[in-house]
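Aim 2 progress update. The chain analyzed this quarter is reproduced below.
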Amino acid sequence: MIFVTGGAGFIGSNFVVDWLHREGAAIDEPVLVLDALTYAGNLANLASVRAHPGLQFARQDICDSAAVLALLRRHRPRAVVHFAAESHVDRSILGPGEFVRTNIEGTFSLLEAARAYHGERTGSERDAFRFLHVSTDEVYGSLEEHEPAFTETTRYAPNSPYAASKAASDHLVRAYFHTYGLPVVTTNCSNNYGPFQFPEKLIPLMIANALQGRSLPVYGDGQNVRDWLYVGDHCRGIRRVLEAGRPGETYNIGGRNEVRNIDVVRRICAMLDELRPDGGGSYARHITYIKDRPGHDRRYAIDCTKIERELGWKPAESFETGLRKTIAWYLDHADWVAEVTSGKYRAWVALQYGDAASAFQG
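Predicted structure tokens:
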């Protein structure tokens, strides 16, 4: 078994679905999803595997180290894959406290539980255990236009509360390897996009707003650059690091797709013009430039040479193919978007589970 924290969120749920549906997947190594089901955690993301005999679920706050340790002892996983995090920069600017709690305190609590659990293992079970920590390129700060891309040795320089909280969690993970011998591996990824992404992030927000005839807000001059990584490629990369990554190492996972924000929005509009034409004209007419957000990093870029060279992983999707798949998914899943943005899902969770510690068992 493996544990996946944040497995009902965007990247985590894609990883779980991919894990259970991958070629050669065996139900004798199930996955236990731990998720607190906050606003971005959604059991509907796991609908396609809900009946899978290899899926189990526990509604669990990772800040409760004792409860997590009890689950570890009960299920005896060979690995913890740690996705659970607050991840939206704008939310971190407005309310940094939740980011400190989840990303720093939560990771600390999870590491403490994993350290205790690993210390109780012996022989091959102890040797095989891994703690894989999923992080972000934002810990490295901002690049100028012609600077080389981030590598695993780039100096940390976080510029937002979100990035700072993830940087702190990365340092904790590193410390638990060097101090306690916990077999950790860290991945730092570039901007993900794809199915099940909560529509507060750039790509799903633009798709949703365009289809509703609302403005498409672009920060500043729109020239901020991001490296875009299709979530399916990211999941394959994480799986490969889990299979063959060396304990104590960091692996950058990037899409090799640097695109300016304004060009992302224009490409979305052009694809929607093709796939879902608007009788009033091009969706691009709704593009609106708004005041830039505080501390807005100018450019991110990932150099993923290390994972390509050492583990044989490369992104399969170009930005064009990945974006087309993403837009098609959102067009086909309008009900999902409506539900997660209406508040009905959160009300349902409260009614269905209350303070229960678990939801369904596979």
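The chain is about 45% helix and 15% strand. Residues 15 and 235 are 5 Å apart (CA to CA). These observations will guide the mutagenesis experiments scheduled for the next reporting period.
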